[in-house]
Amino acid sequence: MPRSVNSVAKRARRKKVLKQAKGYFGRRKNVWTVAKNAVDKAMQYSYRDRRNKKRTFRALWITRINAGAREHGLSYSQFMGKLKANNIELNRKVLADLAMNHPEAFKAVVDKVK
């Protein structure tokens, strides 16, 4: 009996990977073995960096809150401690937005906790 191969599925699988590699430079976009490795690595990076993005944004928010708090004579840790003590439950994302875009509202929050 002759050997049976599923060329349709094989081609579909390869087309899918080459489509994902669209826009890559050089052989990474059109040579199967190179494109497969490049796409696998890109998927690892995207998985990792979806988690790292959360860390990066939290660090950015903390930096912005710290800058806003220091304008009013408080450090970041003092400010956050006083927020907790006064049961003000604003998250860092909102506080950073207030510090950057609505300084008068941020000042009201600082005055509330002082």
Automatic annotation (TrEMBL):
It holds the Pfam family Ribosomal_L20. PROSITE patterns: RIBOSOMAL_L20. GO terms for molecular function: rRNA binding; structural constituent of ribosome. Keywords: Ribonucleoprotein, Ribosomal protein, RNA-binding, rRNA-binding. GO terms for biological process: ribosomal large subunit assembly; translation. The keyword Nucleotide-binding does not apply. It comes from the Bacteria. GO terms for cellular component: ribonucleoprotein complex; ribosome. The keyword Isomerase does not apply. Belongs to the bacterial ribosomal protein bL20 family. PANTHER family: 39S RIBOSOMAL PROTEIN L20 (PTHR10986). Binds directly to 23S ribosomal RNA and is necessary for the in vitro assembly process of the 50S ribosomal subunit. It is not involved in the protein synthesizing functions of that subunit. HAMAP family: Ribosomal_bL20. This is Large ribosomal subunit protein bL20. It comes from Hyunsoonleella flava.
